[in-house]
Amino acid sequence: MALRRIAVHFYELNRAMEIASFIRSLPKAELHVHIEGTLEPEMMFDLAARNGIDLPFATVEEVREAYEFSDLQAFLDIYYRGAAVLVTEQDFFELMLAYLERAVADGIRRAEIFFDPQAHTERGIDFSVFMGGFADAIDAARERWGISAGMIMCFLRHLPGDAAVDTWNLAAPFVHRMIGVGLDSSEVGNPPEWFAEVYARARSAGLHAVAHAGEEGPPAYITGALDTLRVERIDHGVRCEEDRALVERLVRERIPLTMCPLSNVELRVFDRLEDHNIKRLLDRGVRVTINSDDPAYFGGYVLDNFVATVEALDLDRNDIVALARNSIGATFLPDDEKAALLEELAETGAALEPGAPEPTQNEKG
Ligand code: HPA
Ligand code: ZN
Predict the structure, then answer these.
(1) Considering the domain 31-348 in this protein, what is its CATH number?
(2) Measuring from each residue's beta carbon to the nearest atom of ligand 1, which residues come in under 6 Å?
(3) Which residue's CA is the closest to the ligand 1 atom numbered 3?
(4) How many CA atoms are closer than 13 Å to the CA of 309, on its beta-carbon side?
């Protein structure tokens, strides 16, 4: 009996490793990651010591034990406190470079990365400090590892729309280093319509637009983000399923959803990963993608999110390739760069799976 159990254990281990290396080998994009959410406890301690900042934790283990969240707000309280250890340009550089190195290890070829300027300007840190550090790290990573990255500036929705406009004005000298704007922080009670003005300005400056919607908030916030903010992607969007017409619209208009399965379980959006709706939406033809959100807080980077989701929802290789394809298709890369990555994905996906069936409809483009 014991031997049989060990044999089963090794079979499963081997299978999990095979799935992980298959996923790692596929070119992919990460479209939903908050750079401040990639601050690992070890780096948090190093930076706190370097900058003379007191942390309410004695050890790295204590930090990890504190990462037990009842909802989004409980997480955000800890997330903003963690971000306060970031002070110098070098700190922001190291944070960004560490994330990009980690992303490369997961087979990420393009990352479109959120940052929260108001979490820093409210502490008296100047735009030039974090933008300088982020931009240098992105340039260094492209040179060292070939990864392509762009920055998306998020407005904190628990602060007023006017504060977002003030932030936009402060950002003016750095807009050329951004690819888009986004909206994050406490969702419920802070509807997208409050940010119409700042989004209109960002769009007329040529930036792309995305917004968190339907994570904890109602489907009406997804509709509001699409109609009022004119966003091109929805971040999370899990609650779209409560509005049948909205799901049909997402399919028809090919609106990508940047989903974050481990985050949703950690923040109690779903009780268990087995309950997540990503597979159901994929099968309905919604352009869903897998991302990490705040990997240092939620127990995993993109590959961890993929592996856990594949296991929990019994995704097959076609599903995995479809998710990778959706991620590349949903980037803000120029068409020729997108096409090159998609072609590489088709070759890799096919090479690794001899005799694989033709892609299904929801995998295309
Ligand atoms: N949701 C909203 N705001 C956030 C998140 C999130 O998951 N992570 C960082 N800011
Ligand atoms: Zn997020």
Answers:
(1) 3.20.20.140
(2) 34, 37, 72, 79, 184-185, 212, 215, 263, 293-294
(3) 185
(4) 31
CA 72–ligand 2 middle distance (angstroms): 10
Amino acid at 16: A
What are the catalytic residues? Answer: 215
Query: 355 CA to middle of ligand 1, Å?
Result: 41
pTM: 0.94
Distance CA 126, CA 171 (A): 10
Q: What is the DSSP string of 120-171?
A: HHTTT--HHHHHHHHHHHHHHHHHHH--EEEEEEEEETTS-HHHHHHHHHHH
Outline where DSSP puts E strands in 206-249.
208-213, 233-236
Q: Please state the domain extents for the chain.
A: 31-348
Beta strands, E only, the chain: 28-30, 108-115, 148-156, 178-184, 208-213, 233-236, 256-259, 287-290
Overall average pLDDT of the 313-318 stretch:
96
Q: List pLDDT tens digits, range 277-293.
A: 999 999 999 999 999 99
Q: What is the pLDDT of residues 154-174, one digit of tens each?
A: 999 999 999 999 999 999 999
For residue 326, pLDDT beyond 90: yes
CA distance linking residue 19 with residue 150, whole number of Å? 28
CB–CB of 125/88 below 8 Å?
Answer: no
Number of H helices, E strands in the chain: 17, 8
Distance 114 CA to ligand 1 centre (A): 10
Rg (Cα) of the chain, in Å, rounded? 20
